[in-house]
Amino acid sequence: MRFNLMRPRSLLSIILALWLLLIFFSSSSGQPKEGILKRFLTNATPTGIEADRTLKEIESAFRLKDYAKVIQLFSTLPPSLQLSPEEFFMVAESFYQTGEPEKAIDLAERASSLRRGKELSCSAELLKIKSRLLLGKEKEALKELDELEKGFCAELVGDQIKVLRGLLKKNWEVDVDPNLIKTEVEELYLARFNYLLKKGDLKEAEKIAFNYLNISGEYQKGKNFFFSLAEAYFKKGEIPRAKKFYQLIITEWDVSKESFLSKFRLYQIAYESTKIKELLPPKTIEDLLMYITQIKAKYPSEGIAEEASFLGIRIYYDQRDWERTRKSTKEFLKIYPESSFLTKVYDYYCQASTSLVPAYFLQGKVGELQKIAQEEREIFEKANCGVFYYHLGKEFYRYNLYTLSSYYFLSVQDLPLPGEVLPDYYLKLAFLAEINGEEEVSDILLSYLQKNFSKKTGSEPEYLFLKTKKALAKDLNYGVNLLRETLKTALPVAFKRELIFQALKRAIQAKRFTLAYDLLQNPGYDAGEGDYLWLLSETFSADPKLFERILLESKKKFPKSSAILWLEAYHLERKGELKKTSNLWGNLTQGQNLENRLAQQYEKIRKLTERAQKLVY
User: Fold this and answer.
1) Among 89, 339, 490, 599, which lies 20 to 30 A Cα-Cα from 97?
2) pLDDT of 337 strictly over 80
3) What angle do CA 190, 195, 199 make, to 5 degrees?
């Protein structure tokens, strides 16, 4: 049955149509005037205009007998949208044809109730009866058929009533057109076949398929039945049974679309059944990818195209071809935004993107990674892929680019991270906060690490750095013990020096000059002239013996240091060894440093003192 639905597009045409329809239905038994008004006012909104377009597509698909598309389009309509009886009937019949009789009965009832006394109501009642036949409710179907035959429908759809009665009683009326019987029986067989497939009763579906071919004699339709059966067995996991039907189709209908798709399925089965993918011949992979490409190009609107696209992603992922994996996942997400494979596709996208991070760093493609991080942020968020930003931050951290590292670690924000990387993530954040001067944040994170991940991070260089730095500020002895352990780790030299310097400072403040001297000699510190001068100035009066020991060592390390030479001269003079100091003061007067100028002043004073002594004595 075909219906021509005229729908106004412009606002003016909607208003005019509304006026005419209100007049027309003022005396009709159709929809109430309020319902019509609601329907047309709804269609005047942007949402209604989109729904109107969808309804036109439903009508077009119904005419082409593309019942699956009718149902798919129907599922996108707003639940509040008021459908016409004709539209209810089209969707009802589509559910019946595709093997969903319960939904067909519900929608046919709506269509019938809105068109009482019309031919559409009779067709809807027949559809209800046929749907009950699919459900095995013959008694209810026969009762409804008897009631239908008593009314006006006997004149409008009498032949169809006779055919259904013949089916129920298995006693055909002699005056019924054999072609009509054939058409109705074939339709019922097809609907029952689809119903059994959806129920998962594949053995019974097989019987229906063979019976249909025997009754109809339409051998070419066999490929459709057997491909549907093969697909059902494939999705149920009964692979050997599925393969038999795929092979049958290839043998009997080799040049058909179903044969092409069956070949793809056989390649897919071979690929998925092989545990070690590397053992598959390269030609097999090439052929499979070729089938996937052609299916996507030739049959983009069919469900198998979605499955093929997903399989292509898996193949690239299994081959560790991260760039093609990323490209194919992004294409998939654009074409199938509501796919049932989304969770796995996002997972492949995340893992492929993350795996590219170290590879691109080695290839010098750091800018490309930063571009990905910025431009594909929305996809990473939908994929819950914080691990990409974590690894990006970690790579910058490895190269001591701490500012960029902090930026990408913080980019994780509310994105989830795998449990196995959380200890390292929080540790790196605590370390970066410390070296950036955010000591309060660092303390909070360190406390969290000690409470939750101390076993996993206890031996890590950054953890020991933070723990040692905090300990040195509170307990010098404990801090120094931790320092010795920390210096054995792979902590960068600059941070080892920072810890030694802090320990040195605390030791000097505590007047523990021997400890300070030991720290000064640590090869990891590489003490400079200023460090020795600092300790020399502190021990000059407090520990003369240690001062002399340090002085001797510092003279060897920095023989040209005028500051150390000045301290030596001053020290010797305090001890009364004036003969040794005269040459030292003379040498110190050569130069323009502070020490040289002090020596020059001192030399002038010394000479004036000698003259005064000669005048007196």
Assistant:
1) 339
2) yes
3) 150
What was the pLDDT predicted at 37? Answer: 47
DSSP, residue by residue, 471-521: HHHH-HHHHHHHHHHHTTS---HHHHHHHHHHHHHHHHHTT-HHHHHHHHT
Output the CA–CA distances (angstroms, integers) from residue 182 to 163, 172, 177, 211, in the order listed.
9, 12, 9, 13
What is the full DSSP assignment across 69-106?
HHHHHHTTS-TTPPPPHHHHHHHHHHHHHTT-HHHHHH
| The two structure tokens encoding residue 178 | 């054999």
Taking only the tens place, the pLDDT of each residue in 222-250 is: 899 999 999 999 999 999 999 999 999 99
Task: Give the model confidence (pLDDT) of 461-500 as tens digits.
Answer: 999 999 999 999 999 999 999 999 999 999 999 999 999 9
For residues 164 and 147, is the Cβ–Cβ distance under 8 A? Answer: no
Q: Contact, 395 vs 357, CB < 8 A? A: yes
- CA separation (Å) from 18 to 46, 56, 71, 446? 18, 19, 28, 71
Distance, in Å, from the CA atom of 151 to the CA atom of 122, rounded to the nearest integer, reads 10
What is the share, in percent, of the chain residues with pLDDT greater than 90? 58
136 vs 101: CA distance, rounded Å: 11
Question: Is residue 573 predicted with pLDDT exceeding 60?
Answer: yes
Please, are residues 541 and 575 in contact by the beta-carbon 8 Å criterion? no
On whether the CB atoms of residues 340 and 362 are closer than 8 A, the answer is: no
**CA 614 – CA 612 distance, rounded (Å):** 5
* Residue found under tokens 């589509």: 94
H or E stretch at 591: none
